[in-house]
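Just wondering, can you check both lines?
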Amino acid sequence: MATGFRGNGSSSCKYKCDTAANTLQWIKAIADFIRPYSFLINAPVVNFFKDRLWEAVDEEWMECLRKEHVKNLLLIPSGAVQEYWPDSLKKFIRTSKSLALGREQADLQMVLPGWCIASLNTVLSQGMNQKKKHEVEVLSAIISLIASDLKSHAIVDVGAGQGYLAQVLSFHYKHSVLAIDACSHHGNVTSARSERIKKYYSAQIRKSGLETNSLRLPKAMTFHVLSVDALKSLANMSLQDDHADKTSVTGDDLEKTSRQELKGLCSSGKEPSLVLAGLHACGDLSMIMLRTFVECKEVKAVINIGCCYNLLSEYGSDNEGVQNGFPMSFGVKSSGLFLGKSGRDLACQSAERWRNLENEGGVHNFELHAFRAAFQMVLYKYYPEVVATFPSVGRQGKALRRRKKREAALSSQCHEDKLEASQSDLIGGLPDNSNAFSHTISDYGSTP
């Protein structure tokens, strides 16, 4: 169960991972707690309805929750309980909360003295939404501070996407950066975007009368199958004196290149010192970064914000013989814990998002699951040949709902802005502001 609610006793966890013994105790407690509920965890949500899984849930719980107000149901993932609920249900929710990792936010000024955020200019932030801009500003400042303290030769942006983070580290913080991604299109976009940014910075440098030969571009490389070995091979490359030249190669090319040739790319005779960084490193990518850090002495630090943990490959599934993303720990393997795809999806649910839903939004979500389950039952009964093809259902509808929600929010904001503008004109006096008021109505139309 996803947790993270600060209220109602957010520091109630009685477990610690300060020693190996305590960590194993915590792992065992989690495995023992969820094992009896594996039939629910491993089932897709629609199966709760289709296969009547509620019949296996405690009758007293079902009777209680069936009558509960939606707002209280939305608080359950956050660990909140109502005193009039059955004792066994309250114990279940509180135990779940006590087993969850703490989510208190660290004070970065305490952890990283001297750390500060630099606001990005419009050239570097072009194409970023507000969320992405904030993430890049914060993470790039942290990475730059750590990389400078370690005197690293280069930063490797793993899963670089369109190169937003790499370009800020390169152009703004003046680090040597290698941006790698599994998609060659992203590598091309990164290189093209870097060239455009370079023109701006080159012009600024020329205006100041300085030389432009110190201007660096992040290198872009494509790894079709990113692995620990591929990342380790990068440790032979030092980008310290690479400047504006663009380089784009594939992981296949790199692995065919001899170790000596890779060392030839180094501009200094010193042992390479790398920092691995990632913003939204998806699925197994975060695990690959951590394993590389452990196995490769040239990698001095890992700074990573992972995502999409539901896409982790899992030990004990169909992909035997592969170095799986979950679990990494021998302790978890020894516990016999297996989550499965549905369990990993459940683990990625955000308690905060459920908690912040309005009553209408909560009901809407519950209805969607119920109608989707009803549709699945129709497919099973009347179209079994369609079910056999494992169709993907609902993604287009989900995207459409999100778009309509954004449009509704934008429309509401525009409406408020128009009313505010009209009221401001009226307050100033109709005789003096009648033209402005008329202009507002003619431009936007009458308000509903």
Remarks:
- The chain has three domains: 20-104+340-351, 108-307, 359-444.
- The mean pLDDT is 77.
